[in-house]
# Entry
Amino acid sequence: MKYFFLAFIVFLISPSIHAQQQNAMSIHLEMGIPLDDNASNDYLIIRPQYALSYNQQLNVANWISWNLHRGWYGSVPRYSGNFIADTSLPAEFYKVKHSDYTNSGYDRGHMVRSEERTATDEDNRSTFLLTNIMPQTPTLNQQTWLSLELECERMCKNDNKELFVIAGGVFGPNPKRLNTVVSVPDSCWKIIVILDSGQRLKDITPSTRVIAVMMKNGTYTSGTTDWKQYTTTVDAIEQSTGYDFLSDVPKQIQSIIEAKNYVSVQETLYPIVLQVFPNPARQLLTLSLEGMHTEGVIVAIVDMMGKVLEKSFTESSIGVDGQLKIHHDISHLPIGAYSIVITSTNNSIAVPFLKND
Ligand code: MN
Ligand code: MN
# Structure
């Protein structure tokens, strides 16, 4: 009885431990465990290399989630055997075989890319388990999907970023099946939370950049193979899949970063400038925004702990002079230091300001 009680206390306090440190179950579930409204076909597998939710009706994963930084990239040779049936699945589940894909016209598409697990032979072999694989058309796998995998590699190796990645498919009610078993997704999606090396859940703010893409599992021709053409929002992927992603991110920050459509091309073409004056301010802030080409923006005030205090939508669009002026009343705020965060469908920018008396 005493032990039961102790276990119950540990259960009660553990969510707050998760929120402040890293997810106790796995680094790969740092952003939370994506759940939908039907848990009966969500079989959770946690490996040292990644975590996934397996669907025994579709015979593919619902989602695969993994941490990625430069330390995961190494120099071991690519595993050279056939793809591997996952024998860790329960006895009653069908185990997809290498030959289920043979001559299907579809590639065995890695979710966790082989190159992303090349520090040890064992890491690399784990990516060839067929629970990490989804049917992808050759041009999706080898070109469009690859273009984003290469961008992830670039961010890790060149920019020393630490990424939290989730990927999966969207399936119709009666999907096409390879060898009558493996379901073929209509589209494949990927969500990438971009942090700096060593950063964790607690470091996420409304300005954290997130890439979300949705790519049709179809044929791509030259000129249509750049991932930037397929960006969307996490909100849209949640709608298509029924899963709640990034669920351990505080709700108010989650709603901001899940509504962003990140297009890095726009950032390079139009640098965004946000000026806030006067600063310090007592009653009214004037925000002058340049370079954010959009119809309407979300204005949020965030405290020094990253907590979103208020959020409002303004429909004013950027004028012919390329400038948007917004007046924002801060007279009700306590004296202190804050950030103002402006978010559009494509972008986000934050500037600190002081409220004085
Ligand atoms: Mn691939
Ligand atoms: Mn979510």
